[in-house]
Each structure stands twice: as structure tokens, then as C-alpha cells.
Amino acid sequence: MRKVLFHLNCFEQGGAERVVSNLANQLVKDDYEVIAATEWQGEVEFKLDQRVRRIHVGLRKEDERKGRLPKIWLRFHYLRALMKKERPDVVISFTRRPNYRALISALGTGIPVITAVRQDPKSYYNSLADKILIPLLYPRAAGCVFQTREQGESFPASLRKRSRIILNPVNHKYIGVPKPEVREKLVVQSGRLVDFKNQLMLLKAFLKVHEKHPDYILKIYGGDSFDGTKEKLEKFIKEYKAEDYMLLAGASDDLEKQLPKGAVYAFSSDYEGMPNALLEAMALGMPVVATDCPCGGPKTVIKHEENGLLIPVGDEKALTDSINRLIEDQELAERLGDNARKISDRVNEAAILEQWKEYIEATVKE
């Protein structure tokens, strides 16, 4: 039985956290021993199978008064101590800082580390520290999981040779959902209210859509990221007296029931990794219009005019025109939605789990 140690910040609801929780829960069902080493406990987190051992490796209460440098050292110390105690077959870390912590903490232990890059490197790995640490540490990784080829281009070629591209698994509740007999006059989006998702552009575009199609409503499902985006959106809606047809619907646990009611799914991000929300909408058979944002997530899964529409990043007019096109050409919309549904063959939990298991086994043996 393989022992796998995942390292990430926490299991608060987000893209990487969703992927790790799904993987951990699936692996323990396949008789893997799974440890989840996290820095902190979030308020609202994804549920873990009771067989997944959750271990805190972040700062402790007695560390709070210590200086910055001792705190940095302790984070590495606690994770390294856990690695040496548990001796996992492999450590799998997710996102920028946990990747650095895992690579440094594993030095000299002989334990292989697979890093997972989830964000757009040009937006998240662009500091002076990154320019120093990436060529210094990432070649020491046993491998890396990217979501797109474009992500890998920011990392050493030696690492890319032993890396894989694995998409995010989509929760089974989004797969095989029956197609609605009649779609409601709704344009929908799902995801946190956060700056880089550029939901403000969607509101501006929908103003023009609503002028042409006054019977359509926009619903954005997603919780507050507390970066000020929600307040900006609310201010815009109030300024244009659009409360009746632009709705911030909040987070939802039954998106698989709510989203398919819509006629169009609109994705407006300026940059992303591999957006789970987009994969879920496609698996539900939604007619999708999406920005062709870095680092290539949408264009990895969407073929323009075959299973969705791709538009330039930040192009409000293109977003308006594409939404109108899908509203007005229902035959096109349904064809795109039917083809989008086929993404389920690539991103169902079983298919993604097998790719991860195969990569874990190959890495450990090597």
C-alpha cells in the first residue's frame, strides 16, 4: 500500500483545494494511505474521508510572538519533521508556497516530491524570489503536474521532461445531469467574486445584452473573496438600477441543478489555471462563451465554434456579441452544449484518478 502525503495551505473552498480533497478521498478508497498536511484550518472547507489523516504543520500558538525569520524556519521544520516521521512514498504539494515548502523540507530525505502548479505563472510566479527559487528548487522535484502546456513554459525544461498535464477532476454530481427540456432566459456564471474573474466586465456586457433582450436575467453564483470585488459589483448594479435583472446569487451547493436552467454560461476571467467552474459548466452541457485567458485553460478544453466560443481577454464587445449570438441562435447553442458535455469523458473522477495513480507509481519507481 502506497503512502501519499499531500501538502497545501488548507481545504477552504477553492480550485486546488477541491482537487486535492477529491484525490485524497478517492485514493483512500483504493487502499492508499493518505495524509493531508496543512498550514491552517479554514472556516468553510471541503469534506475529507475520515480515513484521510489531517495533520497540522503550520505555526503553533506558542509561535505567534516569534519573529518573521523564526516563523519561516518553523514552517519548514514542522513539515520536514512530519516527512521524516511518516516516510511517505511521495509528497504531492499544491500551489506556489506549499511547493517551495515541500521542495525545501524534503532536501536530503530521499522522499520524492511532485509539485502541482495551479495558477497562471506569469501572474503568480513573477516576483524576484520566484526568479531565484524556480531554477534553484524546481529541478529537484521528482515531477510536476501542470494543467496546460502554457504553464510549463515558465519552468525549467528538465522538469517539463518528467512532468504531466492532468486536468482537474469534475465532481460526479455534474456528470450525466439530464438536459433541460426548456432553458430559462438566464445567463449564468459561477465562481468566487474576485478581481481576476472580471465579473465587472460581465455586468457591463450584460447591460447591452439586456437592452436587446430585456426578458433575460444574469445570475452570478459565488461567495465573497473579500478583496472588494463584491462591493464594486453591487455599486455597479445599484448605479444602473439593474437589481431586477442582475443578481449576485451567493454561493450554492446545488449548482448542478441551478446552472443547466440557463441559456448561456459566461466565463469572463482575465487569467486562471484550469477553471473548475468552466469544466463543470461544460460537463453539464451548457452553451459556453469564455475568455481565452492565460495560462491556456479555456483553449485547452474548448475548440472554438465546436464545443464553445472563445473570445479575447477583456473584450467587452466580444462578450456582449457572443452572449447575444447564443441567445438568438438556439440551434448553435444546443450543438455547442451537446459537444461540451463530452468533456465528461476526460474529466470524470475515475479517469483523472487513474492518471494520478499511474504518475505516482511511475515517479516512485523511478
Keywords:
alpha/beta, 16% strand, Rossmann fold, globular, 366 residues, six-stranded parallel β-sheet, Glycosyltransferase family 4 protein
> Rg, please?
21 Å
Count of alpha/pi helices: 16
CATH fold group of the largest domain: Rossmann fold
What's the overall average pLDDT, rounded?
96
Derived structural class: alpha/beta
CATH architecture of the largest domain: 3-Layer(aba) Sandwich
User: Strand count, sense and closure of the main sheet?
Assistant: 7 strands, parallel
Q: What is the fourth-level CATH superfamily of the largest domain?
A: Glycogen Phosphorylase B
Bin the helical content.
Answer: 40-55%
Give the strand order, joined by hyphens, for the main sheet.
3-2-1-4-5-6-7
Sheet-strand content, in percent, reads 15-25%
CATH secondary-structure class of the largest domain: Alpha Beta
Report low-confidence residues grouped into runs of 5 or more.
none
Q: What is the strand tally?
A: 13
Characterise this structure.
Residues 182-342 form the Glycosyl transferase family domain. InterPro entries: Glyco_trans_1, Glyco_trans_4-like_N. By secondary structure, the chain is an alpha/beta fold. The chain has 2 domains: 3-169 and 348-365, Rossmann fold (3-Layer(aba) Sandwich), CATH 3.40.50; 172-345, 3-Layer(aba) Sandwich (Rossmann fold). Helix content is 42%, strand content 16%. It has 16 helices and 13 strands. It has helices spanning 15-29, 68-86, 96-105, 121-124, 128-137, 149-152, 157-160, 199-212, 229-239, 255-258, 276-283, 297-301, 316-328, 330-340, 344-347, 349-365; strands spanning 3-8, 33-38, 53-56, 90-94, 113-116, 143-146, 164-165, 186-190, 217-221, 246-250, 264-267, 288-291, 309-311. The strands form 2 sheets. A 7-stranded parallel sheet has the order 3-2-1-4-5-6-7, with helices on both faces. β4, α3 and β5 (113-116) form a beta-alpha-beta unit. α8 packs across α13. The longest helix has 19 residues, at 68-86. The two termini are 17 Å apart. The mean pLDDT is 96.
